[in-house]
Write a structure and sequence with these properties.
Radius of gyration: 19 Å
Bound molecules: adenosine-5'-triphosphate
Number of helices: 10
Distance between the termini: 22 Å
Structural class: alpha+beta
């Protein structure tokens, strides 16, 4: 195999709770992860010249070992002593540094791609074990679908698939650092915790409305006061008929769940025309097995 094309899918969190802080400073989380059909495109070409070359459509992204696709390729190539080279073309669509695991998903796709290209024979589980060395979200991005993530996000339990719906994604034109969010979170003083177990039950029952009504992300206690536009986008989505709207991960991207396609489209047009969001996408849920 000389070349391979892959889709690196984004994720949203349907619920995000912080349940404690470890001695090493990391927060213990309980999150419901869901893969969505918004993706980056990755092309890997085998080359005779050794080394890893990365090209991307976003000039501000690193193309050296600081890019997660580079790290993923290096990890497998070192382990398996691959002497050939690879060139990786990355077309980014997933908003960057936005709580959608874009970089982690790119890394996961490269692990999957190189495993096939060089016939390394690694199972999904073995790829996930390697992925965690790159980032806590990478194993989930290899696994895909609906899952409960615990620990620092790397302990995964598969959940029943989320019911189909339209998803509206909107990222305001602000930059929110994950470090800022977690260091300002008062984890032991949270007045409310999302009902993650209730959401799991709603998934078992295939009850989208209940799932949406239980959505909650404790990180909003930091981001919404600091960046009110996040709350304003949520309001806008709910006013447009969303069954639920929430910030994904540490933000600043907000997503809305819509049962009605037409309402979702109207909300999409409204947000595109307005000034609250810089990047707006209309997409759907991805569950394993379905076409992307
Ligand atoms: P998460 O949801 O896991 O917190 P995120 O959406 O907040 O992820 P990413 O888009 O994955 O964040 O990337 C954050 C940072 O990582 C960026 O500032 C960028 O410089 C760096 N980075 C390295 N490789 C990539 C990549 N392939 N795609 C995007 N960002 C990358």
């Amino acid at each position: 195999m000389k070349e391979i094309r892959l889709k690196a899918l984004a994720k949203i969190n349907l619920g995000l709770d912080v349940v404690g802080k470890r001695e090493d400073g990391y927060h213990e989380v309980r999150m419901i992860m869901q893969t969505i059909k918004l993706y980056d495109e990755i092309e890997i070409h085998k080359a005779d010249k050794p080394g890893i070359r990365v090209k991307t459509n976003l000039q501000y992204l690193p193309v050296n070992e600081n890019n997660l696709v580079y790290k993923a390729a290096q990890l497998l190539m070192d382990e398996f002593g691959i002497s050939k080279g690879v060139s990786i073309k990355l077309r980014k669509v997933i908003p960057v540094a936005a709580g959608m695991a874009g970089g982690s998903s790119d890394a996961a796709a490269v692990l999957v791609g190189l495993n096939r290209m060089f016939e390394l024979g690694l199972t999904k589980q073995e790829l996930m074990e390697r992925g965690v060395k790159i980032g806590a979200d990478v194993p989930y991005c290899v696994m895909r679908g609906t899952a409960l993530a615990e620990g620092i996000g790397e302990k995964l339990t598969k959940l029943p698939p989320m019911p189909k719906c339209s998803l509206l994604i909107a990222k305001p034109g602000i930059h929110v650092s994950t470090k800022f969010v977690y260091s300002n979170l008062k984890a032991d003083q949270l007045a409310e915790h999302p009902d993650i177990d209730g959401q799991i039950q709603a998934l078992r029952d295939g009850d989208l409305r209940r799932l949406a009504s239980l959505m909650g992300n404790v990180l909003e206690t930091v981001t919404i006061p600091a960046y009110p536009v996040i709350g304003e986008i949520k309001e806008e989505m709910l006013n447009c008929g969303a069954a639920g709207a929430m910030m994904s991960g540490s933000g600043p991207t907000v997503f809305g769940l819509f049962e009605d396609k037409e309402q979702a489209r109207a909300a999409y047009e409204r947000l595109r025309r307005g000034s609250l969001a810089r990047q707006v996408y209309l997409t759907r849920v991805f569950n394993n097995g379905g076409a992307v």
